[in-house]
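Q: Structure tokens for this one, please.
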Amino acid sequence: MQRFRGTWLYKLFWLLFILIILYVLLLLKPFWAPVLRVVLAVCLPLLIGGFIAYILHPLVEFLYKNGLPRGLAILIIYILFFGGTAYGVYRGLPLVIAQMNDLSEHLPQFADQYRDGVVYLQTSMKHWPDGLQDQIDERIERFELWLSANVSNSINMLMQLVNYAIALAVIPFISFYLLKDFEHVKKAALALTPEKWRPSAAAFIRDVDRSIGGYLRGQLLDCLLIGFLSFVAFAILGMKYPILLGIIIGVTNVIPYFGPVLGAIPVSVIAATISLKFVLYVVIIVFVLQFIESNILSPFIVGKSLHLHPLFIIIALIAGEEIAGIAGLILAVPALAVLKVAIIHARKTLRFSGRTNQVDKPE
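A: Here is the predicted structure, written as tokens:
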């Protein structure tokens, strides 16, 4: 048995076993997805508060190690983060909603402009197959309906934030107390773990933090900078909806490989309604921003990579999009990094248990 464990067939078996489990979970999505939504709705403030505390904790530790009392360090970071966030939401949310409403109202005009352009192209290119115009019209209508529905849903979601005011109001308090008692929370979490698993659990959490902690914090700052630079560039260029487009570019920038393309599509669509010259400007801006992000911001802010092969990242992105859409694309890479650490620890545990069984086996 021990000889079989070291073969490629054994590794292939475990890979197929994991893939089968993931496939079964995907098939059972209609059953567990509603339950997961309810659990997330209940636990969402705690999860968001914990995530914010996790992101801000290194800044608190940095100020504390440089001579500030821990309470004062927490207070400074707390006020800067939540004060800046509250001010940004107060000033930016009405503008975003207004731009989204304006975009939703002008979608039929944008679709008409594209139809006129397609008709012009079709009349100037006689060799196009018959019926292509009908297919293009059908796809434009589908795209218009899809975009209108998503814009309406996004507006409704932003407006419904008021209904969750109480839940959102407790997030700063959760983050504050988690930052204040960060070490106590870690000890309490380990205390809830069975004693024989505590060393493995502590090592697993430490490796997960090393793997994705810096990546998450760097990506957030990276996306904020790219989104802000996009907004400034579009505003200077005279583009419509610069705040909304800057948010789209910033959010999609977190998605590896496909993010810049996904972000550039809606910007190019809106630019095409102005003139083809604006489309060229948009392409140049997106290209320059990606060059800055890849060669300047990312190496200094995000730091070391997750040491994940691009093929696995692409597969994770496809699976994430299939499971949870845009949210799945955003969470796919961190989830893959955690899965990688879990597999490494599982292999170490299996090897250790195998050696222990060999030692304990009577001769």
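A few notes: The chain has 13 helices and no strands. Residues 70-124 form the longest helix (55 residues).
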